[in-house]
Amino acid sequence: MSRVAIVTGGSRGIGAAVSKALKAAGYKVAANYAGNDEAANAFKAETGIDVFKWDVSDYTSCGEGIAAVEAALGPVDILVNNAGITRDAMFHKMTPEQWNQVIGTNLTGVFNMTRQVWDGMRSRKFGRIVNISSINGQKGQAGQANYSAAKAGDIGFTKALAQEGARAGITVNAICPGYIGTEMVRAIDEKVLAERILPHIPVGRLGEPEEVARSVLYLVAEDAGFITGSTLTINGGQYFH
Ligand code: NDP
Q: What distances in angstroms separate CA 40 from CA 15, 36, 44, 46, 60, one per listed residue?
């Protein structure tokens, strides 16, 4: 049997590495993305993985997107809630738009997706949900009150839902990456990265997207049924929680 997986934000960065690792391990994979058609089409051409465009912050679009994936690949067994954005600002300058966009994608998006695969997983008595949170949801980060709140919310959501899914064969876990070398991190000013971020990472480098992907594989495995409600930190030793 080949399980079906959706990876939100699965066409770039960490999500792309997760999509590729799942495919290589024999899963049927649908990679969702928001709007960067060029990147998504290049990803599809490179990997042969089907890409599906919808905005995770919109409940109805998520339902339509999931239906399209299920029509193409079959019922969804695995959901990796990876889509995420930043809209950084010190709090005294943060706008309601910056707050709402980040909460809408990084937290409400996780609800929108999970809610609409949940009933199917419950009825089939199997599900694997992995929520990509962040070190900054664990420790908080100045300039990211919106992002830290959303990512901390993802951890609470994970713990609550793990309890609800346990008897139905559904595991729900969170991964908290530290600084991983994707476009999101490369957008950080080089001087800030060199002087204020790298010195705090004991391993002395950024993480690789593939290093997050291998943990997703571990958590979604058939024999990972006793791992639920956990928060896995992957941060080069930067912060322990
Ligand atoms: P990238 O910016 O490289 O890629 C983001 C992906 O998410 C893209 O595929 C993008 O689609 C998609 N996306 C963004 N918004 C939406 C939306 N509303 N609906 C659907 N898809 C969307 O991000 P990263 O790979 O760096 O980050 C992935 C996840 O990991 C995020 O949740 C992030 O918060 C988290 N994380 C990242 C860390 C890092 O160091 N990079 C550290 C800790 C956590 P499109 O291409 O169309 O824009």
A: 11, 6, 6, 10, 22
Q: Does residue 218 have an active-site annotation?
A: no
How far apart are the C-alpha atoms of 121 and 45, rounded to whole Å?
30
Model-level pTM greater than 0.95? yes
ipTM of the complex: 0.99
E strand or H helix at 173:
strand 170-177
With CA atoms as reference, report the closest residue to 175 among 142, 139, 129.
129
- Mean pLDDT per 10-residue section of the chain, whose length is 241 residues: 95 98 98 98 98 98 98 98 97 98 98 98 98 97 97 98 98 98 86 92 96 98 98 93 66
Residue 165 CA, ligand 1 centroid: distance in Å = 26
Q: 105 lies in which domain range?
A: 4-234
What size, in residues, is the chain?
Answer: 241
- List the catalytic residue out of 27, 33, 147, 179: 147
Q: Which atom of ligand 1 is nearest to the CA of 34?
A: 47
Instruction: Indicate which CATH number applies to the domain containing 230.
Output: 3.40.50.720
